[in-house]
Amino acid sequence: MLPRQHFFFGTLFALLLFFIFPPIGIIGAIIIIFSTVFIDLDHYIYYVLKTKNFNLKRSYFWYFKNIKKFSLMPKEQKDKYYTGFCFLHGVEILIILFLFGMFLSHYFYYILIGFIFHLFLDVIEQIKLKKRIDKLFITYDFLKFKKLKLLQEDGRE
User: How far apart are CA 36 and CA 49, in angstroms?
Assistant: First the structure.
């Protein structure tokens, strides 16, 4: 899902939570909205590490082209590729955020809510487009992706 879609749905979700649970407050709602989008920072970091290019716009289009190419592949071919390793997209990070919320600041709970909502949207999209679910367990994905080929914009593996 593209960042603008995450922002749109994250805003709707945060507003809904704000009206159902007013104690969240404006600050909590804003944190939820931004965390719903900024979890994708790991996509950008992955792009920079892979390409040595810091251009945010190129990163966006690199992923956009790869996802488009990936979605057109037959399922058998999709199973051989991945589109990037996302270290913020996993249950392990959710556990860390929960613990930070318990021991450091309740604001981490709002980040946790935004991350969970983002992952929920990703799972829906993955089931719809990829017919498989990635990015739920960082450790599992890391081990699995070591065996797969990286799908790159220019067709190289």
Answer: 23
Give residue-wise pLDDT tens across range 65-122: 877 777 787 777 766 666 667 788 888 999 999 999 999 999 999 999 999 999 999 8
Does residue 96 lie in a domain region? yes
Neighbour count for residue 96 (Cβ, 10 Å): 13
Does 157 map to a domain?
no
Q: Is residue 14 domain-resident?
A: yes
Separation CA 85–CA 66 (nearest Å): 13
What is the residue type of 102?
M
155 lies in some domain: no
* Inter-CA distances, 68 with 56, 58, 71, Å: 18, 15, 5
The DSSP bridge partners found for residue 150 are 82
**Structural domains in the chain (count):** 1
pTM of the shown model: 0.81
What is the extent of the structural domain holding 63? 3-150
Do residues 87 and 42 make contact, with C-beta atoms less than 8 angstroms apart? yes
